[in-house]
Amino acid sequence: MNTDRRLSVLRAIVEDYVSTREPVGSKVLVERHNLGVSPATIRNDMAVLEDEGYIAQPHTSAGRVPTDKGYRIFVDKLSTVKPLSTAERRAISTLLSEAVDLDDVLERTVRALARLTNQVAVVQYPSLSRSTVRHVELVPLGSGRMLVVLITDTGRVEQRTVDVDPALTDDVVGELRARLNAAASGRPLSVVGSLLETLPEVFRPEDRPLVRSVTGALEDSLATEREDRMVLAGTANLARSGTDFPSSISPVLEAIEEQVVLLRLLSDMADDPASGVSVRIGHENLHEGLADASVVTSGYGSGGEVIARLGVLGPTRMDYPTTIAAVRAVARYVSRIISG
Amino acid sequence: MNTDRRLSVLRAIVEDYVSTREPVGSKVLVERHNLGVSPATIRNDMAVLEDEGYIAQPHTSAGRVPTDKGYRIFVDKLSTVKPLSTAERRAISTLLSEAVDLDDVLERTVRALARLTNQVAVVQYPSLSRSTVRHVELVPLGSGRMLVVLITDTGRVEQRTVDVDPALTDDVVGELRARLNAAASGRPLSVVGSLLETLPEVFRPEDRPLVRSVTGALEDSLATEREDRMVLAGTANLARSGTDFPSSISPVLEAIEEQVVLLRLLSDMADDPASGVSVRIGHENLHEGLADASVVTSGYGSGGEVIARLGVLGPTRMDYPTTIAAVRAVARYVSRIISG
DNA sequence: CTTGGCACTCGACCGAGCGGAGTGCCAGGC
DNA sequence: GCCTGGCACTCCGCTCGGTCGAGTGCCAAG
């Protein structure tokens, strides 16, 4: 048996199906790709491929369509990444370089990715738990409320208002701010919790209840997971490629809106060392609303360390080579910007 | 001629069409609503209503469907708001009362509104231009960058990093912070721009360039409109009621994603004094992607003053009475929370 | 292992025909 | 002057049968 040719056939089927949206038959296959054999031979190969679960036919006497498993092989072994045009590269580069902020960077990134791939783009904010504290700012707002601003080394700014003891004086706040920063600066955020526990001890006994009201509120807000955030763009692209979702796009939209689902999905993915990206195809995303969707992601960060992920979500029938290239390229550009 | 009955007919048509999704004919009309006359009579009324542009038929010998103009009359004159159930009220109330933050309040609000109406919900952040400054915080980040945090009286927190002269010392920053707050606190944000112009004058001549590098950056970031923000929820509802958008939902999704469009739309609307809400039907939203959509909004704020708007977006064929009730109720609850 | 031939299957498309819902109009009644 | 029953008409939606074509699986021969 000729395994090589069979894989070529699979590749040809995927490519044709992706570009035409139609089940592909043995005849057009030999016409479009010069396989050097007759349709009958191809048919035998296709029968085997179908047995092995790489392709399927929608109905008897229709052409073949790749299965999730077929796409998987295609992505892993059969495709070569299609690099971006220099115009595209330049566009990304200048767009991102104009950003003023982390917020701004991620905003621009997600838009670029959506436009580039014509799919839904998603960019995760740098993970808080893996960040270190750069600065903590306390701003009393009066009437027992205080604003806490947390700035991480990655430039992420989280803010939260907390309820504190109204008797808190500016002096105590000032001292607390100084001590908090001295103790927390440069430390990973994960240790700040236990740090807060011991902090009141160093204050004068009469101030401790006040201090505790602040540290308590802080601990609370660290505990409640507002932890991970993300930005989305390009949902309209879903509707445009609507025919690619057999049933309807609404389960996909629901999954997207349920940000927790997406965030978990992103966190679960790890980059393939070779390609630098990670691909989840159809049912591999365990969420059932995403059974007809694929997710292509890549980590980004500074200095080789991954601090968050970004990627796109689209129909399983997507152009993997160009999508993968786009995701990888964008991830690199963002990393460069973040590092600089 | 019997104008009253004709309006009843219009109302009946709207109600039936909204609940059945099907063009409604003279026969079912007299069956379902007891109009006390024969189908033939209704037909005459319908002919007149059609001449006047309130209803239309998709094809000859189909039933009638309300036009935008028909819905307009229905909303203005023919419908009575359908109040929320007490269970719903209680749900909103408790959900909102658990919020810790302005961010949190708006997040919860938009979710509640989406769930309540099964449509796309949108909540505008309190307008910056109509807010006054409560506090400005300057946090030097080192290496020529500084974080500016702006807190308004409505609890909105905007942050932005700006590039400044690296030679800036903590002393100058401290003085600037104090003077800035002294000058800006309690003043409307709209005057802060001109205030920044004159601020450097009061500093020692040798510090003025440094100060200018800060105020310049601040003016820049005030000028660039990141001004208005909003939160969205319930886009998946669009897909579920997909059949109500004759062509496709993708233009609607695009309009939503183009947040500027929505924000302008919201700003352009003003509440009807009687009902407390504002309704835009179909082509009344000038954006052409929203030709088959209606928008129902209401202002919210504290102490009777409107500081922003919230509302929902759905198909023109929507249940106006309950939608209007929901929007109004939610706006009231948010206002109460914000005021408290 | 490949190939041409062949019978078979089944969806897509077309056109005809039918039924039904709904209309507009008209003539008669209150 | 308005309402009503009756009636002819229109046109959509549906079904049915038939055809066409693409594509398959299998087989026997090279």
Short structural description:
The structure is a homodimer of 340-residue chains. Chain A is α+β, with helices and mostly antiparallel strands.
3D architecture notes:
The structure is a homodimer of 340-residue chains. Chain A is α+β, with helices and mostly antiparallel strands. The first copy, chain A, has 13 helices and ten strands. Chain A has helices at 3-20, 26-32, 39-51, 68-78, 86-97, 102-117, 170-184, 192-198, 208-223, 235-240, 250-257, 259-268, 320-339; strands at 55-56, 65-66, 120-124, 133-142, 145-152, 157-163, 230-233, 278-281, 293-302, 305-315. In chain A, the strands form three sheets. Chain A has a five-stranded antiparallel sheet, sandwiched between helices. Chain A has a three-stranded antiparallel sheet with strand order 4-5-6. In chain A, a hairpin with a 2-residue loop joins β4 and β5. The longest helix of chain A is centred in the last third of the chain and has 20 residues, at 320-339. The first copy, chain A, is elongated and about 90 Å long. The relative contact order of chain A is 0.13. The model of chain A has no long low-confidence stretch (mean pLDDT 91). The interface between A and B is medium-sized, with 33 and 34 residues. The structure holds a DNA duplex (30 and 30 nucleotides).
